[in-house]
Amino acid sequence: MMNKERLVWWLFFAAFVLFIVLMVTGIFALTPFIAANPEVGAFLIGFIIFWLFANRLIFGYGAIADVSNALYKEEEAKLDKEEIAKKTGKPIEELEHLSEVSIIMLWKGYLEPFKYALFLGFALVFSFALLFGLNIVTSLTVAPIAEGFMLGAAIPVLIVWIMELIADYYVAALIKRTMAT
Asked: Which of 13, 15, 56, 77 has the greatest number of CB atoms lying within 10 Å of its CB?
């Protein structure tokens, strides 16, 4: 059975492929609207593409926040070490001797390269939108399209940033409680 993360990724991927195929073939019902407002199409494409990159981070930080909060409240929460070992590529034997906080930090560390790749991609998109907007690189006709793409990309990036802050808060609270005991 597919987990939620994979299901959402495939739904967004299917939406992206469907959107592109229908736009290329001209069958899409919103083609006249998007032709009149290309910023909307660029916004949707930017949103979908960056959501595909951010999906792992959104679900990863959400799961870290949930587990950390449950462990902090001392609820019946158990880390699925096999799942974390599969995600991080670490052998399960290596995780058996680690504390729950260490495993959570290992899990967070696994997400770091994906986060920095997402932020780098957004920084490049933002830079190009700024260059086009200031008319440094090209004419003003491309600037609204680049800005629409950048604004669409900003939503998943902002969600990742918020989810990371929430996860960091719960992990810090768990570490503080662990250090106090």
From this structure: 56
